[in-house]
């Protein structure tokens, strides 16, 4: 750089005519900050040599500034290149050091078997490194490590999942000790480091495992200690602990309050004691001799003397104690003693024999009635004998019931000492007496025996039960309903027939309801207020008591014949007999006779009028219509021929309807007679099909006929069978859509010939299947069919008249199938005709 400045100096000396003042020196000093000494010398030289005018100086200054800028830029570029080369060398050296350090850390990190799992921030893909054979087979995928359920039991796996979720979501660290499904103990540590969630899993062995187990035991012991301290602090009883020399080492707040100390430290410093000196001496002696002390002692707390149950035991090198308030229990015990004495005095006055045996089964108390009942010596009883001795002495005197196994009987009796409930029994003594024996377990132990002589009561009850049983059996066997009401109007007695007759509840009648209540229950069957008032007055009245007969016609159509009969003890007996059958038979016979006569006359009149008054004019009209249509009578205009055709069709339809009605009326009147003979099945189907050919052609419907080869013939009325098949085919064609198929088939079974007619019409709804065979029941169901609704009625009537059956199978939208069974047995025709 010094050589450059010397060159510049020479150039400036050769250009002395370019500048004259010191401005150029300041410019050069600013442009050459890296060489201030050389620049100063250059300025001094220029100041001496230059003597130019101002214009020449300005030109020279500009040239020098450009030259200086180029020099400075070259210098700065050179410095930058040198600095960059130095930085690159230092960076390569640093990278090498970091690589060595990373290798050293990796070797140190994986010096022992462990697994590292890391999740970068915002990335759900885990990066796994380390020895996965700790938890999975060597050939397993590393990603299976984060499926904790594959190598951990369910509960630790769930715990690990929750800990990892908390670490990744909130950065919560954790440290867990886990046991794998194969029994290995692992430690899992999770931390959030550098924006990553990192989990480290390694096996605990040797010292680390022992340390972990020690820490767990220490924590459990610490938790237990804190729990016990909390319990002692919350307990309302004074609790204390003393060292081996008797010094107070711990006391709970209740102890501090009881000794009126300011704090536990105050109680320790002042050596405040809960017990007086004599009681403390007794407690110390008990702890030394028996390692424990229990006693009920008086303690003065808050100026009040109360009884406490004091318990102390040796623990380690010291002792602990507790004082529980027993004042209430002591008072209750005293009251119980006084109450027991009062009970003893009361029991001694009873006529029943009472004996109380204590928990050791020795006689603790007996009253005078007990001694007289068994005729025992007072001296023997005052000696407090045991229960077995008393029973043995009574058995020796033959005063106990005879038993085949006395030992087993006595053992069963003594089960009362272990029972929790009172037991009752009856002893039948050899002298004929009967004793009621009640054994009651005592709360404090032992049993109380209560003996009562019930000989006379049992005899009276036996007689009364016998009378009631006879009375009850007599009433229960009656077909008549019987109920007895007392003078207070309440039911005292009733039999099952009465309950069934009025549809009452036996349990409700056993509650002795009043006659008004019974009346309310019976209103559903009979609600005549006059009759019920008569019954109420007869039951509750005092005078004018006499028998009152009744006849009740109830809402359900039944008829009852009743009687109100007063009894000698003031009660009233009601008796009811169902005479509905007798009334109904008489009424039914009378009504049936009248109905039969009227129906017979109506049918005869109907058949007579229709036969002569309706068929005759129809026949005349049909005859003249045929006569007019004959060419011999003269030509007709097309319009006249069309009208005549309408008249012919209408009169034929009306005649067919009239014939159907006449046939139904004749069948219903029982006047229809079948003209039986051989019926050729094939010919019958052919004749029936001829009648619907024009309708088949008009509606473009195809008839499919299927006749089994072995169908043959059967005995029946051929004309009526043809009529049946025609009506079925006409009905099927009327309900079938155009361009469809109607089928008819015939087959022979073991006992009948079966005709089946099928169509593809709209079908019959389920609620209409039972009505299609009724008179005048006709519904189009959306089809072209129109009719009076007599065709299927005739079908069923004629088939049943042959002794056969008709059934209909139909699915809405899929057509209808009608099946007719004509029996081949001649007996069936005879039965049907009859």
TrEMBL record:
Q: Which domain of life is it from?
A: Bacteria
Q: Which Pfam families match?
A: HATPase_c (PF02518), HisKA (PF00512), PAS_7 (PF12860)
InterPro entries reported for this sequence: HATPase_C_sf, HATPase_dom, His_kinase_dom, HisK_dim/P_dom, HisK_dim/P_sf, PAS, PAS-like_dom_sf, Sig_transdc_His_kin-like_C
Among PROSITE patterns, the record links this protein to: HIS_KIN
The GO cellular component terms are: plasma membrane
What Enzyme Commission number(s) does the record list for this chain?
2.7.13.3
Q: Where does the Histidine kinase domain lie?
A: 609-826
Give the Gene Ontology MF terms in alphabetical order: histidine phosphotransfer kinase activity; phosphorelay sensor kinase activity
Q: Which UniProt keywords apply?
A: Kinase, Membrane, Phosphoprotein, Signal, Transferase, Transmembrane, Transmembrane helix
Enumerate the catalysed reactions.
ATP + protein L-histidine = ADP + protein N-phospho-L-histidine
Signal peptide (from-to): 1-39
Gene3D superfamilies in UniProt: 1.10.287.130, Histidine kinase-like ATPase, C-terminal domain, PAS domain
Q: State which residue ranges cross the membrane.
A: 58-78
PANTHER family xref list: OSMOSENSING HISTIDINE PROTEIN KINASE SLN1 (PTHR43047:SF72), TWO-COMPONENT HISTIDINE PROTEIN KINASE (PTHR43047)
The protein here is known as histidine kinase
Native organism taxonomy: Bacteria, Pseudomonadati, Pseudomonadota, Alphaproteobacteria, Hyphomicrobiales
């Amino acid at each position: 750089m010094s050589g450059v400045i010397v060159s510049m100096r020479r150039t400036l000396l050769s250009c002395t005519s370019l500048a004259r003042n010191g401005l150029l020196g300041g410019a050069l000093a600013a442009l050459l900050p890296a060489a201030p000494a050389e620049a100063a010398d250059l300025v001094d030289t220029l100041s001496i040599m230059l003597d130019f005018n101002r214009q020449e100086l300005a030109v020279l200054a500009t040239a020098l500034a450009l030259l200086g800028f180029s020099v400075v830029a070259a210098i700065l570029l050179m410095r930058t290149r040198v600095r960059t080369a130095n930085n690159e060398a230092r960076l390569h050296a640093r990278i090498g050091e970091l690589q060595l350090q990373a290798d050293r850390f990796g070797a140190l990190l994986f010096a022992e078997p462990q697994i590292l799992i890391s999740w970068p921030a915002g990335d759900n893909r885990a990066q796994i490194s380390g020895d996965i054979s700790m938890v999975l087979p060597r050939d397993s995928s590393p990603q299976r490590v984060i499926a904790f359920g594959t190598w951990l039991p369910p509960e630790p796996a769930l715990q690990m999942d929750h800990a990892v979720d908390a670490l990744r979501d909130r950065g919560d660290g954790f440290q867990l000790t886990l046991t794998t499904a194969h029994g290995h103990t692992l430690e899992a540590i999770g931390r959030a480091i550098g924006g990553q969630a990192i989990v480290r899993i390694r096996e605990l062995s040797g010292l680390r495992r022992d340390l972990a187990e020690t820490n767990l035991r220490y924590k459990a012991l610490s938790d237990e200690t804190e729990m016990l301290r909390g319990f002692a602090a919350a307990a309302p009883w004074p609790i204390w602990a003393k060292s081996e020399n008797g010094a107070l080492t711990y006391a709970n707040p209740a102890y501090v309050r009881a000794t009126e100390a300011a704090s536990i430290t105050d109680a320790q410093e002042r050596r405040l004691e809960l017990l007086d000196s004599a009681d403390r001496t007794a407690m110390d002696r008990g702890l030394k001799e028996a390692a424990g002390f229990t006693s009920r002692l008086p303690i003065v707390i808050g100026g009040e003397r109360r009884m406490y149950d004091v318990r102390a035991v040796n623990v380690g090198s010291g002792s602990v104690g507790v004082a529980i308030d027993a004042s209430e229990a002591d008072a209750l015990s005293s009251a119980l003693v006084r109450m027991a004495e009062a009970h003893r005095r009361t029991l001694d006055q009873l006529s029943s024999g009472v004996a109380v045996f204590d928990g050791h089964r020795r006689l603790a108390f007996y009253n005078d009635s007990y001694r007289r009942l068994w005729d025992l010596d007072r001296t023997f009883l005052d000696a407090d004998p045991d229960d077995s001795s008393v029973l043995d002495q009574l058995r020796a005197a033959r005063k106990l019931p005879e038993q085949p196994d006395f030992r087993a009987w006595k053992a069963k009796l003594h089960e009362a000492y272990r029972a929790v409930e009172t037991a009752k029994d009856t002893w039948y003594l050899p002298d004929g007496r009967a004793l009621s024996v009640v054994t009651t377990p005592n709360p404090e132990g032992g049993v109380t025996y209560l003996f009562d002589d019930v000989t006379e009561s049992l005899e009276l009850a036996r007689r009364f039960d016998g009378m009631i049983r006879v009375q009850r059996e007599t009433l229960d066997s009656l077909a008549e309903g019987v109920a007895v009401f007392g003078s207070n109007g309440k039911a005292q007695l009733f039999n099952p027939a009465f309950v069934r007759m009025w549809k009452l509840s036996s349990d409700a009648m056993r509650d002795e309801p009043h006659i008004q209540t019974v009346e309310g229950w019976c209103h559903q069957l009979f609600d005549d207020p006059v009759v019920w008032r008569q019954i109420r007055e007869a039951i509750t009245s005092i005078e004018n008591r006499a028998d009152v007969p009744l006849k009740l016609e109830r809402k359900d159509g039944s008829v009852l014949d009743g009687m109100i009969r007063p009894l000698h003890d003031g009660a009233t007996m009601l008796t009811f007999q169902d005479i509905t059958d007798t009334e109904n038979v008489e009424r039914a016979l009378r009504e049936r006779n009248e109905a039969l006569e009227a129906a017979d006359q109506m049918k005869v009149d109907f058949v007579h009028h229709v036969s002569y008054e309706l068929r005759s004019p129809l026949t005349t009209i049909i005859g003249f219509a045929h006569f007019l249509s004959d060419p011999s009578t003269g030509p007709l205009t097309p319009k006249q021929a069309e009208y005549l055709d309408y008249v012919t069709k209408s009169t034929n339809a009306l005649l067919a309807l009239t014939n159907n009605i006449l046939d139904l009326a004749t069948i219903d009147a029982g006047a229809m007679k079948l003209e039986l003979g051989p019926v050729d099945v094939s010919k019958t189907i052919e004749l029936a099909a001829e009648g619907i050919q024009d309708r088949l052609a008009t509606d473009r419907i195809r008839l499919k006929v299927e006749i089994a080869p072995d169908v043959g013939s059967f005995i029946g009325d051929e004309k009526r069978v043809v009529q049946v098949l025609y009506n079925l085919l006409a009905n099927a064609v009327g309900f079938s859509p155009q361009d469809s198929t109607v089928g008819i088939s015939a087959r022979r079974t073991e006992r009948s010939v079966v005709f089946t007619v099928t169509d593809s019409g709209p079908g019959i709804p389920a609620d209409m299947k039972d009505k299609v065979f009724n008179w005048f029941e006709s519904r189009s169901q959306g089809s072209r069919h129109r009719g009076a609704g007599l065709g299927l009625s005739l079908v069923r009537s004629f088939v049943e008249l042959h002794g056969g059956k008709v059934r209909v199978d139909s699915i809405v939208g899929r057509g209808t199938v009608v099946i007719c069974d004509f029996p081949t047995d001649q007996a069936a025709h005879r039965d049907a005709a009859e």
